[in-house]
Structure formats: C-alpha cells, structure tokens
Write a structure and sequence with these properties.
Blueprint lengths: L5 E4 L5 E6 L5 E8 L13 H8 L10 H7 L3 E6 L4 E8 L3 H13 L5 H20 L6 H9 L14 H5 L3 H11 L5 E7 L3 H12 L22 E7 L5 E8 L7 H12 L5 H9 L3 E8 L6 E9 L5 H17 L4 H18 L3 H14 L8 H6 L3 H11 L5 E8 L5
Length: 416
C-alpha cells in the first residue's frame, strides 16, 4: 500500500508533507509540534497541555480563531500527549490560503499575556479537578504512571503532576516554553486534499518561510532502568467497586517488537472471544469489565490490564485470576485463529484510516516524527509479519510480576 506524498524541509527547518487527494473537496491541515509532557521540567509539569489551551486565546491578527474558522466552514481541534502536541483543521478545499494564514498567525504570534494565562490556568486547573481528582478512579493514571516510572518523564500525566504546577506558572516561564518549542524547526506540517504538491509547498513557504527557527535542541531524557520487582499501591476510599490496574513495561512505538506487544492486548481483551473477557467476565463473572491495551508511547511505554470487579468480588480474588490468565498466556501457544482475528481488525482500522484526509495528514506527521513518513506504508506489513510464536515470546518477557506495577482501588467496606 503506497502513499503518494511530497516532502520538503524549508530553510527554517519546517518539515512540509503534502498528500494529493483528487477525490475529495475538503482540505486537511495538521501541525504536529515536537513537544509533549515528556519534554517538561519535573518542577513545571503540565505546560505542553496548558500551552495547547493558550493557543486558542487569539493571535496578533486574529482575535478569535474559532470565529474565523467557522466563517469558512472549517472544523478544528487539538490534543496533547506524552510525546507531542497536535493541531488540526479541516476546511473546504478552496480555503487553503485562509487555513495557512490562521495557523501561521497563531503558531508564531499567539496572544500570551497575563490575562490569557490566568484564564487558561483556571480552565486547566478545573479540568484537573473534574477529570482526575473529583471522580472515582480519576487519579488512576496519576498514580499508575508514578508507580511504574521512577526517572523517565512518563511518570507524570499530560495534565501534570499536580494543580500547583499550573497555579504557579509564571508568564516568564510560559514564554520561555513558547520560544523553545513553538518554532518551525520543532514542527511538522501536513496538508491533504485536491492539490498539486508544488502549489501547496509554495503556499506554505509563502506563509511560514520567514519565521525564524528557535535552534533549541533538547538534551537526552533519563532512561528508565529495568524494573526488578513488583510494585504495589492500594487506595482505600468511597469507590463504587474494587478496581484493578496492572502496568507492564514494554518496547516503544518504533521498536521492532511493538506490533507483537500490541497484538498481546488483542488476544487478551479484544472482542467477546478474547481470553480475559471470555474467562473472567463471561464464564467466571469476576469482572464487570476488563480491558488490555498499550499506551503507544514513542519511548518505552506500558501494557495495561484494567477492570472493575463484579459485585461481591474481592480484589484479591480478581487479581489472582488475572495473574492465572496471564501466566497461561505466557506458556500456552497462541492460535492462528487468535492472531488472524486480531490482524483482520487491525487491517480494517488501518485501511479505513487512509480514506480520510485528516487521518492521512496526521499519520504522515506522526511517522515523520517517529522515524520517517514513508514508514506509514510499512505499518500493515509489520503487523502481518507477527507470528503467534512472536506474540507468545513477548508475552513471556513482559507479563511477569517483576515487571508489573499494580494499583488497586478498595472500597472502604471491603477488605483487601
């Protein structure tokens, strides 16, 4: 499956990717900024996410980004992860120049003053409280990351370690963050739509070419040491039911073993015929829900098994049952049926993703950041190359107690 695209790196370091798609009347523009929570100072966490909010506060020539975007029939949004910050926009194809103007103005000249900072700090702190602190199990990822990682910056969530880091954010520190990371040499821009590649590259150069690079080069991130023993944290409180989170260290997104690790989670919990669902949810009734998934981080990430216990089931019993299932997976053969079922589902997802211009633009940016955009075409073949023996090999290596961090939520009226 060959993706047609053109790549151009402007003199200021901006990487431009253009995917011509003559079968659509819509244009898609994606800008990926090479900054996520892993790039933050341990004493100033949550800044990548805070800055994403600030980018919607208006810019030098555009007081309201959303108002202009809506006036041309465009839709836009953004997200922040551990590895990156992403801004995307879809619009009628003939509005490409307006889309480029919108993004250039807010990327290079966002309005970041004390009023904008105070407003967005309040929004982010409220989000922190509502999503992470004021609901049952909401702090699971705050706790689990800190339990699983000891030195790598993945040990804090994208929202940050604690609200105090956002509360204490000063305008000076925020502007320093902008000057380092929000510059053309820290960005990848992709356009998909019914365009000639040369025309798009010329337009991007016209809008972005005079923007000076920052020249910032991040130092090496601390590498997480090999875990040599199980880590545990029990939290007691007013929880609706006992809950279990188990995290295992696994290879990063660019590692040759990543796809096999991803397929482990499909064998465990994708669909009603998956091992954990069939055994522990349907047959034995120990969990009301139980899922396995990977974080998909660029640096070595986590394979997670999580679920809520069924009524009347103690967390000890539920956890022991999960360990029994994982131990069987480590030693039993993975069947061709299990591998093929998961592979068919992944193939469908990857093929359908190529039908949408925005997904194409976003994936080209992601693979360019990870390695090179051309590797997007290799993704399906990498999954197809995974054998049942490779899945079992990774399961045997990863799913062992010495590599596990276990977080349990125990209602006050339950015994652990």
């Amino acid at each position: 499956m060959k993706t047609g695209f053109t790549k151009k790196i402007l003199p200021n370091g901006l990487t431009v990717l253009v995917h011509p798609d003559p079968d659509t009347r819509m244009g898609s523009l994606n800008i990926m900024v090479k900054v996520g929570s892993r790039d933050e100072d341990p004493e100033h966490t949550g800044f990548a996410h805070l800055f994403e909010h600030l980018m919607f506060s208006g810019s030098q020539h555009i007081p309201s980004y959303d108002q202009v975007a809506q006036s041309i029939g465009a839709e836009n949004n953004a997200f922040t992860s551990n590895d990156l910050t992403d801004y995307y926009l879809t619009f009628p194809a003939h509005q490409l120049e307006v889309a480029l103007w919108l993004e250039r103005d807010r990327m290079s000249h966002p309005v970041i003053d004390q009023n904008a900072l105070d407003t967005q700090k309040s929004v982010v702190i409220e989000e922190f409280k509502q999503r992470y602190l004021n609901q049952p199990y909401g702090d699971a990822w705050l706790e689990l990351r800190n339990l699983a990682y000891s030195v790598h910056p993945y040990r804090w969530a994208t929202i940050g370690k604690e609200p105090a880091h956002i509360e204490k954010a000063t305008l000076e520190v925020v502007l320093d963050f902008k000057n380092r990371f929000y510059a053309p040499d820290r960005m990848i821009l992709a356009v998909s739509g019914p365009y000639e590649a040369e025309r798009v590259v010329d337009a991007v150069h016209r809008w972005f070419g005079d923007w000076a690079p920052s020249g910032y080069q991040a130092g090496p991130r601390p590498q997480e040491p090999v875990q040599n023993g199980i880590r545990r944290l029990d939290k007691h409180g007013s929880y609706p039911a006992p809950a279990l989170y188990m995290a295992f260290h696994m290879p990063g997104r660019g590692d040759a073993a990543y796809q096999a690790c991803d397929l482990i989670t499909d064998v465990l919990s994708r669909g009603q015929s998956s091992r954990l669902f069939r055994d522990l949810v349907m047959d034995r009734g120990l969990f009301s829900d139980l899922n396995a998934y990977v974080t998909g981080d660029m640096d070595p990430g986590l394979l997670v098994v999580s679920g809520h216990c069924a009524p009347g089931v103690e967390v000890d019993r539920a956890e022991n049952a999960v360990w029994e299932s994982l131990e069987r997976l480590r030693h039993e053969e993975i069947t061709e049926f299990e591998r093929d079922k998961s592979l068919h589902q992944i193939e469908s997802s990857l093929v359908f993703a190529r039908l949408q211009g925005l997904n194409m633009a976003m994936n080209l940016c992601y693979f360019e950041y990870l390695s090179r955009a051309e590797d997007y075409d290799l993704e399906l073949d990498r999954y197809r190359a995974v054998t049942p023996a490779m899945i079992r090999e990774q399961a045997f290596t990863i799913l062992q107690p010495s590599n596990a961090s276990v977080l349990r939520y125990i209602p006050s009226d339950h015994e652990s």
